[in-house]
Amino acid sequence: MDSAAPVRFLKGHGTENDFVIIPDPDGTLDLPPAAVARLCDRHAGIGGDGLLRVVRSAAHPEARGMAAEAEWFMDYRNADGSVAEMCGNGVRVFARYLERAGLAAAGDLAVATRAGVRRVHLAKDGDVTVHMGAARLPAGPEPSVTVAAAGREWPARNVNMGNPHAVAFVDDLAHAGDLLTAPAVTPSGAYPEGANVEFAVDRGLRHVALRVHERGSGETRSCGTGACAVMVAAARRDGADPAAEGVPVTYTVDVPGGRLVITEHPDGGVEMTGPAVIVAEGTVELGRLTAPSGDDRSNG
Ligand SMILES: N[C@@H](CCC[C@H](N)C(=O)O)C(=O)O
After folding, report:
1. Hey, which of 7, 123, 217, 277 would disulfide with 79, CB 3.0 to 4.6 Å?
2. How far is the CA of 240 from the centre of ligand 1 (A)?
3. Is 139 exposed, middle or buried (0-12, 13-18, 19+ CB in 10 A)?
4. 145-272 is classed CATH 3.90.1300.10
5. Is 28 marked as a binding-site residue?
6. pLDDT tens figures, 128-173
7. Rounded to an integer, what distance in angstroms lies between the CA atom of residue 19 and that of residue 291?
8. Exposure of 270 by Cβ count < 10 A (0-12 exposed, 13-18 middle, 19+ buried)?
C-alpha cells in the first residue's frame, strides 16, 4: 500500500479506554505491528490504548467462519502492535462506530472477535451492553497465582475472559505504585501469552474499584475484560455463585475512567454495560508517522 495515501481513522473510548478505529471493510490495509504502534503513540501518532480495525468477517481469514453470525470482525491490537483475543471496552466502541457509520442499526447486533462472536445491545445515545461469555477460572475458592508490584506481593486469581487476567485484591490502589512497568506474575507458566493485571479494592456492598496494567498497552484508565475478571473474582471471594444459586449477581466496578455495571448470570454468561463514544475522525498518512521514542510504556 502507498504509505502516503490518506487512511481514514476515528477515535473513540469506553470509560476512557481509548482506541484508534480504522475502517477497512475489505481487509486490504497492511497494518503491521510497527504501524499500529505508531498510530497508537500519544506523542508522535494519534494516540490510543489499542486499535480496532473494522473488517467484514468474510474478508478476514480469522473471522470467515463467523461471517454467517456476525457481519463485522473486530481486529483488535494493543498499543504496542500485539494482537489480543478480546477487548471488552473495544467491542462497545466498535458497535458504536458501526451504528454511527450506518453499518448497523441501534438495538441488537453481533460482533466477531478472536474470542468468538459477542452479542451487543446498543441504545442509540446511551450505554452499550455486551455479552462477554463465561469466565474461565481454576476450580476452588483460593487464588492460584502471585502478583508483585512496587515492592509488595499479593495472592491473585487467574481469570480468563477470552484473554488472560490476574486479579489481586489490595488494601489501597496506591500500593500498586506507578505501574510504569508490568507487575511480575508467578508462576510465569500460568500465563504463557502474558497477562493483564488488575488491582482491586472494595468500595461497598457488591461495589469494587480497580487499576489495571494491560498486556501490550501499560496502565490504562479502564479495561472491560479486566473489570469482568474482577467482578467474577470478587463474587467467588464473596461466596456468590450464580450457577449454584440460580440467581444473577451484579457488581458495580469503578475504573479510573468511569463506571461499569457487570452481571454474572446462572448460565455463566457475564454481561457488561457502560458508555461508548466516538470523539473524533480524520485522515492520517502512515508514512509520516515516526517510531515511538524509547520509553518502554507505549501508553505513556
Ligand atoms: N482494554 C481491553 C483489553 C485489551 C486487550 C488486552 N490488553 C490484552 O492483551 O489481553 C478491554 O477493555 O477488555
Report:
1. 217
2. 26
3. exposed
4. no
5. no
6. 999 999 999 877 666 689 999 999 999 999 999 999 999 999 999 9
7. 18
8. buried
Closest CA to 128 of 101, 108, 112, 103: 108
Stated pTM of the model: 0.95
DSSP 240-269: --HHHHSS-EEEEEEETTEEEEEEE-TTSE
Annotated binding residue at 224? yes
Cβ contact 137:157 at 8 Å: yes
The reply to whether 250 sits in an annotated binding site is no
Residue 50 Cβ inside 6 Å of ligand 1? The answer reads yes
Q: Is the ipTM of this complex over 0.95?
A: yes
What's the confidence (pLDDT) of residue 141?
63
Question: Among 52, 86, 111, 211, which is best to mutate for testing ligand 1, by the most ligand atoms less than 8 A from CB?
Answer: 86
Could you name the CATH architecture of 6-127+276-288? Roll (3.10)
Across the range 186-203, mean pLDDT stands at 95
Q: Is 88 in the pocket of ligand 1 (CB under 6 A)?
A: yes
Active site positions, annotated: 87, 223
Which residue is associated with the grid cell 473489570? 227
Looking at the chain, the domain(s) classified CATH 3.10.310.10 span 6-127+276-288, 145-272
